[in-house]
Automatic annotation (TrEMBL):
Pfam families: Iso_dh
Gene, per the UniProt record: leuB
Site entry: Important for catalysis: 144, 191
Subcellular location: Cytoplasm
Positions of substrate binding: 99, 109, 137, 223
Protein name: 3-isopropylmalate dehydrogenase
Cofactor note: Binds 1 Mg(2+) or Mn(2+) ion per subunit.
Broad class of the protein's primary localization: cytoplasm
Binding locations of Mg(2+): 223, 247, 251
Amino acid sequence: MINKYNIAVLPGDGIGPEVIHETKKVLDAAAQTYVFQLQYHEALIGAIAIDETNDPLPQDTLAKCKASDAVLFGAIGDPKYDNDPSAKIRPEQGLLALRKALGLYANVRPVKAYQKLIDKSPLKESIIQGTDMVIYRELISGIYFGDKSTSADGKSAVDICSYYQEEIECIARLAFKAARQRNNKVTLIDKANVLETSRLWRKVVKTIAMEFPEVELDFIFVDNAAMQLILNPKQFDVILTENMFGDIISDEASVIGGSIGLLPSASVGDESALFEPIHGSYPQAKGLGIANPIASILSGAMMLEHLGEHDAAEAIQDAVLHCINAGVLTSDLDKTSKFITSDIGDYICNHIKYRTGYRYKDTIPYNKSTII
Ligand SMILES: NC(=O)C1=CN([C@@H]2O[C@H](COP(=O)(O)OP(=O)(O)OC[C@H]3O[C@@H](n4cnc5c(N)ncnc54)[C@H](O)[C@@H]3O)[C@@H](O)[C@H]2O)C=CC1
Ligand SMILES: CC(C)CC(=O)C(=O)O
Ligand SMILES: [Mg+2]
C-alpha cells in the first residue's frame, strides 16, 4: 500500500511562494521516485491573509494545519507593516499564533559548514571548517508571547518575558535526546547573570541533565555566545536556548554556512510539526528569481524525515549537496551566478531522479549536462 500524507502548505509573503514552489517540485520528485503520495492543502497566512481576510491566521488555515500530517511554511512579513509601528494587525502575529495553536514548542535549526562553500563565508576557513551544530530554540513562550503594552502617552512600552518550568523541561529533554545521537554535549545559552527567567532555565536544565548522565552540559551567557559562535563555532554540538536568544543567534550562525538561504528548520510539538526556513520574507527579492530555495527544500527533507520517509529525505539532502558541489548557486552565494531560484529546484529534482534511474515518467525536463 502506498503511504499518503496530507500537507498543509502556507507560502505566505515575499519570497515565501517562490521557495515553496521549488520545495513542492522537489518533494514531488522524491514522492514519485520513492513511491508515496503528498496531497497539498494550500492556505493563507501573514500579510496576504490580512489583505484577503483581515486576519493573519484565518480559521480555515488553522483548521487545515490541524487536519494535516505536517505543515510546510514559507515566510511572512511585508514592508508596509515593518515601516508602520502603529499597525495593530501584523503578519508576524499569524506565525506566532500558529506556533502557539499547534503547540510547536521546539524549533530545531541545524547549522553546518559545507566544504564547497567554505570561502563564501566572511569567516576564516580555519574557524568554520567542520562546524556541525543544532540549535534547539524554545518557540512558544518567552518575550515574544508575554503581555505587551504601550502607555497612553506613547512614551513607554512593556514586553514581559516569562517561563514556566514545564515549558523548559519539554524542550530540554528533546535537546538532550538529540545530543545523545550526536556528540553528547548540550550548551545552554542564557543571561543568568541578569535575568530571573535565565536562572530558572539553568535550574530546570540542570535537573533534566541528571536524566542524561552521558551528556555533558555547559552554560554560556548570550553575549559571550554571540562572540564564541563566530570565534570558535566547532565548540558547539547542541545549543539549547530560549525563544528570542535562539532567534537571534541562529541568524548569526547562518553566516558560518555562507547564507541564511541554506538554513532549514523543524518546529515540533507533541501533536503537530511545521517545517520552515529560518529566513524571513526577504521582500526586496520578491519575484526576482534570486531567492535561495535550499533552506526551504531542506525543511521539506526534514518534513519527510518526520513522516518516516527516510530514503526520500536522504535523497533530497544528497541532491542538495551535489547541487552545491556543482556550483549551481543563487547570487547570495555567488555574485556572478547566472542560476535563478528555479534552476536550483530543477537541478535537485533531476538529481533525485537520475540517481535512482528514473523509475517514473519525468515531469521536469531532464538536462544531463546539469547532473554530476
Ligand atoms: N519566519 C518568518 O516568516 C520570518 C519573517 N520575517 C519577516 O520578514 C521580513 C524581512 O525581514 P528581514 O529582517 O529582512 O529578514 P529576512 O530573513 O527576510 O532577510 C534578511 C536578509 O537575509 C538574506 N536572505 C534571506 N532569505 C534569503 C534567501 N532565501 N536567499 C538569499 N538570501 C536571503 C537577504 O540578504 C536579506 O536581505 C520582515 O517583515 C520580518 O518580520 C523575518 C524573519 C522570520
Ligand atoms: C515571528 C518571526 C518573525 C520570528 C522569527 O524571526 C523567526 O522565527 O525566525
Ligand atoms: Mg528569525
